[in-house]
Amino acid sequence: MEAQPPALLSAPRMLTLVGSILVSLSSGTNYIYSAYAPQLGARLFLSHTQLNVIGLAGNVGVYLSGPAWGRVVDTRGPRIPLISASACLLIGYLGIRGIYDNGAGTAISFMHLVILIACTFITGLAGNAGLAVAVNTTAKSFPETSRGTITGLVLSGFGLSAFFFATVASIAFPGDTSALLLVLGLGAAMPMLLGLVIVRQIPLPPPSTTLGIEGGLHGREGYHPIPSGDAALFIHENDSHTSLLDPTELVYEAPNYHVPESSTAVELVSDRIVSRGSSAKRSASRARPVHDGPNVYGKQLWLTPDFYLIFVIMSLLSGTGLMYINNVGSISQALYAKGNPNYDELEALRWQAAQVSTLSVCNFAGRILTGLIADLIRIRLRLPRAYCLCIVSTLFVVSQLSAISINDVAHLWKATALLGLAYGGLFGIAPTIIIDWFGLTHLSENWGYVSLSPLVGGNIFSLLFGRNLDSHASDDDTGTHSSLPLVRRGGLPSERQCFDGRDCYVSSLYVTATACLIALGLSVWAGMRDQRKTTEAKREVVWDAED
Questions:
Q1: pTM of the model as a whole
Q2: How many structural domains compose the chain?
Q3: Does 160 share its domain with 249?
């Protein structure tokens, strides 16, 4: 007799959830870049454009590796990605730390700049490897009805990463950038190795089910989980004249396979059900496969309009988020420096750290809240989860308008909090929408392809921001600002600092605000489109019995 899978709230399942959150927490270290980027630029005499290129290298590593890591996780499991992630985190952050420590007072060479970019890139590779494992494992270890909440909970660790590691470093090594990089290397690599032991897929227990009118499953008839991969349910056609609505005469031809959940739109017709009195005709009937929900992947994914819709929405929104995340430290310094004759480097660093912490905590909260809201919309309101994209897009628009209006660093936290909620919400809901639209079987691979989207918007908006900031900083070389000598004494390279406050970057925010408005319109369309498809699918639920 086969052992029954653990219960939903069993210790093995909860241990996998906790382990996945820890792995996710160690995967989001790229969000902390703005906490040390200004110090990196000051010590190594890097321009804002160069700093944005370095930061983008980490983002490129995260998103460009998505399809590859997704395929590995889907086909080989978590072991290879977790070992690779641990090694990449150690090499990447210790490499950045080595260049930082050896570059005091001198501009780095082109070769060292390339190494710096490469090190940041492989930390991004590590982040995607860990996140793919965490999301894939938990999505397949918990039922569909709680998938948005569970996925959001795991992804929240990714958003909280910057706050966690920045807090640890600030308490243990306040003001020490070198120590922060050491904490990132060692502290993020260890949980990946721990994940090798505790992060594993736990089979779902067999819920009690009977056949319902709308494809729902209710009552006491049990079933077993579907096997991994493309396993399908094979049921013979029905040639009997038994009444279709007589539950006492209904049997399933393949009782050991998974019957789709109630949330999955399936076509229930008479040729998929057999009665007890049709055994002779059953033997000659033709078997037909029924998959558990959609299963779109590979070439078919790239031919699906929904793929391009979610790709464009995420490109616009995540590109905006990445631009802000990579440059919030520079934004806070520009606001703090404007008209400030008493510029204090330590005080500027505190404002900078405050933005990073606010961003991280709100990123964390956004991922959890969006997961809860998505399940509420899906289960209670019976609307597609895609409508959550409208909420997320609205938050992005408001965050950019808020940032445009802020002239005082003391109020910057408001825009930062809104951006964090929006960015966290986007990545909290996106994987669940990918499952709803394209299926669970190839989740990691499909999510990897969709994750290429931030590279487009992220590169365009971040480089635009860096060039904009450099163009204003270059105007300060004349030495007309009264605070310039104080900045020099503070150890910041004056030719790299912009003293115009909001004017240093506001034109970039007008661009991203417009992009977010476009994304909002597309999000409304996505929700209406998904709802229309759901309605059409329900109409296809047909009960066709012969008299």
A1: 0.65
A2: 2
A3: no
